Amino acid sequence: MSEWPVVLESAPGDLVRTSGSEWLPVVSDLPVEYEGPAYLPHSLPGSINPRELIADTWGDVERAVAALSGLNKLTTTLPNPHLLVGPFRLREAQASSRIENTIASAEEIVLADVGEIARNESVEVRNYILAAEYGLQIDQPVSNNLIKMMHQCLMRGEVRGSDLRPGQYRISQAYISGEKRGFNNARFVPPPGEHVQSSMDTLFEFVQEKSTGFPAIVAAALTHYQFETIHPFSDGNGRLGRMLIQVQLNRAGFMERPIVDLSSFFDRFRQDYYDLLLDVSLKGTWKEWVSFFCRGLAHQAQDAEKRALELLDLRREYMERVTEPRASALLREFVDYLFTRPAVRTNDVAEHLHIQHNAAQRHVTRLVQKGILEEVTGRSSGRVYVAKEVIRIIEKNIN
Questions:
Q1: Cα 338 to the chain's mean position, in Å?
Q2: What angle do the packed helices 144-154 and 237-251 form, to 10 degrees?
Q3: What is the Cβ-side half-sphere exposure of residue 269, based on CA atoms within 13 angstroms?
Q4: What is the three-class DSSP state of 15?
Q5: Average pLDDT score over residue span 203-213
């Protein structure tokens, strides 16, 4: 890297030398050698004074805690709060992937989920959902093993980065591209490959043992910064780092049901998100980063509450449509299924309701007649039906 912004003494890391070669087709037909500084973060908590940081950010922390607690209280009073998890997980996956310029509609993603031929972008977002589900459901601590398994899920199939050591930390130098390509134009250069394993070991030591002096929300903010700064994989770090937030807060009891899509806030304020992370590295501005993180959680918890109530209103409306004399009780169960899986084939319905294919088709036809499902393929066989009103609420802007 030819020049670096000034790294102040208050910065929580050091510059170390790195070198290597890269292929830049516009510049040369041969590999181009480079040499310059990379950033090696100090282990957490480093020089952070927990009392001082908590005091400086306490108002934002309190508001985030209150918003998350209120949302948890709402979901625990619902007859079936698990119905909300699927739609919000889809929304989070969309937003987190969009930050990395991977764009896919919710309908594309749910169609990929039922095996429809899909663009790589929608497969990538579906992989995000699967990786997040794995991290949230498996009973093991936040650790090197967990994050590597989640990375394998994220890189499954023929998607971008699937050929770059899925489930293994990088051993080569990486950098965050600037406006122009090439190491010398990089926006940020994380630590060289030989430092990655030790840096991740100390990060998870912080998560498991040394983060107890901080509120769980603050610890999650610090962990996210550290993960993104280490940049341990050759691809997928941004998405995986945002998944890690959900996993940490879920383990801490703040997201018993992960329906807060913090990535939507990061996407909305994308440049602030990038700049604040970089400012921590350059200046040690932990307060500004933690406050931003907490404001995002509070904002998205409020968004989630409004969106959850809209989804529940829609569910009540659907239930009224299918409740009539001599109607099968399974129709109500079918309606609930659509909130967890908004795109279905008749075989999916038969399997979920434990009924024969012909009976399942009658149920599907009934929901089409009620305006709940819409067939989207136009085919005479292998049809797929989508609950488009559920998709609309997932994707709409609320505030």
A1: 22
A2: 130
A3: 15
A4: strand
A5: 95
What pLDDT shows up at residue 235? 93
DSSP code at position 42: P
- For residues 302 and 328, membership in a common domain is answered with no
pTM summary value: 0.90
Farthest CA pair distance, the chain: 76
- Same-domain status, 239 and 388: no
Give me the domain span that covers residue 355.
323-395
Mean pLDDT of 153-168: 82
Total domain count for the chain? 2
Instruction: Decide: 131 and 157 in contact? Cβ < 8 Å.
Output: no
Burial degree of 59 (CB within 10 A; 0-12, 13-18, 19+) = exposed
* Main-chain dihedrals φ then ψ at residue 19, nearest 5 degrees: -155, 165
Residues in the chain: 399
CA angle (318, 324, 328) in 5-degree steps = 85
Quote the radius of gyration of the chain (alpha carbons, Å). 23
Structure-token pair, residue 391:
């998709």
Q: Where among 253, 272, 306 does a domain terminate?
A: 306
pLDDT in tens, 106-115: 888 888 778 7
